[in-house]
Amino acid sequence: MRPLPPTLRENRRYLLVKITGEFAEMPQQVEIYHAIRDAASELFGDAGSAQMHIAVVWSENEHAIIRCSRGWEQQTIACAAVITRLCGVPAVFRTVAVSGTVHGAKNHIKNTTWDRNSLAGYQCSGKKIDSLKGSNTQEYLTRDDILKE
Questions:
Q1: In this structure, what are the phi and psi dihedrals at residue 71, rounded to the nearest 5 degrees?
Q2: Hey, which of 41, 87, 120, 130 has its CA 20 to 30 A from 8?
Q3: What is d(CA 78, CA 76) in angstroms, rounded to the nearest whole number?
């Protein structure tokens, strides 16, 4: 059987959710799915949760991507917000972004680790780095200065 063309497929939305909790190890994708499915069933009943077509399509570290039907994004966000426990541990689901593709949702993950002593910096025209100090004065460093350290 041939797959349906894109114009005949059901439109979906992907929610990037950040899961916060004191887990020994992050829960598996199936456990996240059961928690969101149970919350949807309690909030909207079996018929409403069936129309949502909820699925957890990706999870890594503290982030997960939840798929739902288009038009049910707000209800799915509400389902995620209602969850208070995951695998017996208190947990918080915070929706970070809603996207039309998995790739677009993953682009919203910020993997930045900052040192407390570091300053915000901006690269200017590929030659200099503009660093802001606490007194709002600008200090310019060249690539040679960076390579010396």
A1: 100, -15
A2: 41
A3: 5
- The answer to whether the CB of 62 falls within 8 A of the CB of 18 is yes
Question: Does residue 4 register a pLDDT over 50?
Answer: yes
Size of the chain, expressed as the number of residues it contains? 149
How do residues 72-91 score in pLDDT, each as one tens digit? Answer: 999 999 999 999 999 899 99
User: What contacts 30, CB < 8 A, 6 or more positions away?
Assistant: 56
* Phi/psi of residue 99, nearest 5 degrees: -140, 165
Side-chain half-sphere CA neighbours of 109 within 13 A: 19
Query: Does residue 103 surpass a pLDDT of 80?
Result: yes
Rounded CA separation 121/83 (Å): 38
- 74 CB-contact burial (10 Å; exposed 0-12 / middle 13-18 / buried 19+): exposed
**pLDDT band, residue 125 (cuts 50/70/90):** low
